[in-house]
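Quick one:
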Amino acid sequence: MLQTTKRPDSPVSIIGAGIAGAWQALLFAQAGHAVTLHERGDEAMTDATSHWAGGMLAPYCEAEIAEPIISRLGLRSLDLWRRELPDTPFNGSLVVAHPRERNDFERFARMTEDHRRLDAAGLAALEPSLEGRFRDALFFPAEGHVEPRRVLPQLHERIKAAGGTIKFCSNVTANDLDGIVIDCRGISARDEQSELRGVKGEMILIETCEVQLARPVRLIHPRWPLYVIPRENGLFMLGATSIEAEDTGVSVRSALELLGAAYTVHPAFGEARILEFGSGLRPAFPDNLPRIGIRGGKISVNGLYRHGFLIAPALAELTLAYVQRGQIDNEVMQCA
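Output:
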């Protein structure tokens, strides 16, 4: 087992500069460790799963299908996002449904907490673009969202400001490194964690000035929930599928489903300009739960599935607590 230490200057090497690795590097650097973050890709991070993520910080909504551990980690992560990036938008999220999905909407309401029901007038007051579109909605006021392609560089800058070093185009393995090594490679870690599988999440980026939204809107859907996430300058991300496939393309069927569902949220999306199609492979274990593995002189943080931006901060906090104090979280950690 890895020997823990209370020395704050113990060197730490982290492999993978996506959302999981970035939060590990940030918290360890702030704690006084000599941190080096290795990323095999370049600074643009276009090959990283995080590049294609939605960035929703929605622990209450995710409780509809996720295990309680996701809610626990997600709620703690909200505090860490607020602490480290206080400009993170926490103006809530909305869940809506068309009449034919009424039963599913009511089930969603029963399965989740910390929301309040809005009537049509309340929804219009919150999001004027949705006036007359839905008869009611669920409003989750404590939830937030980030723009992954903006927030990852911000985290990288904070790592450097805390004294950490980031090495892009650095294709290293744990065997190449000394000291404490934290493996956050995602699906690429399957060479050592054979249980990992890739779950494809597809997204479409569109542009329109005819719709303005201040917060993510999740549409109840018979196969998968669509979410419409506002970005800056009239951009919207449409996502996301969860497909048991490991190619990185976007299928015609998925594109039709996402675009069609967006059109039902607001017809103006039918005139929007498509800017980008893309997909990422989310790393998942068979139970779809995250895992911090401790074996020999190495720690692995993986299996974040579709909850990467939601739970990465809390996982980094748990890893730091283990290294500094030997603290074990039995729900997440496995020691060999």
